[in-house]
Amino acid sequence: MIFFLTILFCIGLSGNLWAIICVLWTWLNGRLPARGVFRYMSVYIFLLSISDVFVLIMMALGTAYISTQSWNYSLTTCKIFWAADYVSKLMSNAILASISVERCLAVFKPVQVSGFKNQIIRVFIVVVIQLFFMAALCVPVVYYAEIVEMEVWPEKSDSEHRHHGQKEIVEMCRSDMPDDVFPYYVILLVVFGCLVPTVTTWCSYVFLVVRLGHKSGANVFVQAYRSRVAVFLFLAVTIHFICTAPMWYSMLAIVAPDWLWAPSGELIQILILLPYVNCGVNWILHALMNRELRKASSALLCTRISQGGSYAVMSLTPSPVHWNSPANRHIKSSSSLKSLLNEKKKHAVELSI
């Protein structure tokens, strides 16, 4: 078990850091997707990778806890461990739900928000609200987290040691809530941490598919949404649900054994590991989504340029040609405009390579 967790940590941490570096490299090198929806989706992918990194760090701390069979850190570290573990897991659900809602809103367009700065502010506000709400859900866990001294038999104790009652005293980091509080807290956690984000995600995708079905198939915006970005995002949501749903079910089975089948202790340990496995391999989908974002955005720009729209001409950044420069003020004829469009189209194709 320790070997498996170590390998998972190394692969997951290196992969998620690589995905984060790829997104940052895309931003810093001026290859930011030109379409607004693709821009803030890249921000959400960046946040998802950071959330997975925090989950893996907590897994490493928990692995050391399991290997030593004792908590060798302070009480503050114990509380931080429980808080970070819960918040990072809940944030993955919340961010995936936010991505699906943003994609749905981009198609329905109930409110027009222009400018990349305004979109980043909106994403920042959404993430801050989610963090505040998730932190509020984790307050009981942090409050009841404490270091408990327990007497255990030595791992290699023989019958003589057991006969004389020679036990070891170890410190454990636990969060034991009162019996009259724990069931209600688990139900609250499952509802707002799992059911609400999951239902929101799937409903958003249903509405998105229905809406796209009423749009023209020749619409450039619709074609962009039918790209492989949606496929990878759908896979990420599905895999995340498969890996996290058993963990939430096991929590409900503990508080409702009369209505739900309670898994064995060994099976519960496996179910608890599934979210860590998800975070360890999610970076593959994150990296693929980031690549498809660049391709879809470049294809969208090239298509708009071929249609001769002024929006496409003005939206290309960075541009090797400036409209207001003294050297280009003489551009009046259609032939000059056509050559300018071809030059910008060539520049957009180079960005997508």
Automatic annotation (TrEMBL):
Membrane topology summary: Multi-pass membrane protein
GO MF annotation, one: G protein-coupled receptor activity
Domain G-protein coupled receptors family 1 profile residues, every copy: 15-286
Superkingdom per UniProt: Eukaryota
SUPFAM superfamilies to which the protein is assigned, alphabetical: Family A G protein-coupled receptor-like
One GO term describing the cellular component: neuron projection
Coiled-coil residues: none
Family listed: Belongs to the G-protein coupled receptor 1 family.
UniProt xrefs under PANTHER family: ALLATOSTATIN C RECEPTOR 1-RELATED, NEUROPEPTIDES RECEPTOR
Name of this chain's protein: G-protein coupled receptors family 1 profile domain-containing protein
Lineage of origin: Eukaryota, Metazoa, Ecdysozoa, Nematoda, Chromadorea
